Amino acid sequence: MSRYDLTDFEWRVIEPLLPNKPRGVPRVDDRRVLNGIFWVLRSGAPWRDLPERYGPYTTVYNRFNRWRKAGLWDRLMDEITKAYDGNVQMIDSSIVRVHQHASGVKKRVEFVVLVAAGAGSRPRSTRASTAKAGRSAS
């Protein structure tokens, strides 16, 4: 059992909710497909990087989309929440607080005004011979 796989308890709760319409081609094991879906969602990896033990990534992706369009994920989450007596916590990036320095707060810009030593005097950092030597003769 992998880190992202369903427990036996969770599978007993979910299994009766899954569509069970027989079609021409025999279905791939639903538990294996669900474990593949959860692996992709929890790891954040692209569908193409799905490990082979979960089956073809196209099957897992198509089943995920088909169940999403049918509203199956909402029913699954409701049943899992009931099975755990409402003691389920989920975190996504929209509710995680960021440290104030990483939040994009505008930085204060300080302007420093340098006063020249004297009116009409040349800058001290550049010597007159260096400025003339840098020019081309053409």
Keywords:
5 helices, 138 residues, single chain, mainly alpha, elongated, 38% helix
What does this entry look like structurally?
- There is one protein chain.
- By secondary structure, the protein is mainly α.
- It has a domain of 76 residues.
- Helix content is 38%, strand content 0%.
- Helix 2 crosses helix 3.
Spans of at least 5 consecutive residues with low confidence: none
Helix fraction bin: 25-40%
Q: In percent, how much strand structure appears in the residues?
A: under 5%
What characteristic shape results from the CA principal axes? elongated
Task: Find the count of extended strands (DSSP E, 2+ residues).
Answer: 0
Structure annotation, total helices: 5
User: For the CA atoms, what is the radius of gyration?
Assistant: 32 Å
Q: By helix and strand content, what is the structural category?
A: mainly alpha
Query: SSE order, as H and E?
Result: HHHHH
Intertermini distance: 78 Å
Mean model confidence by pLDDT = 76
Strand count, sense and barrel status of the largest sheet are:
none
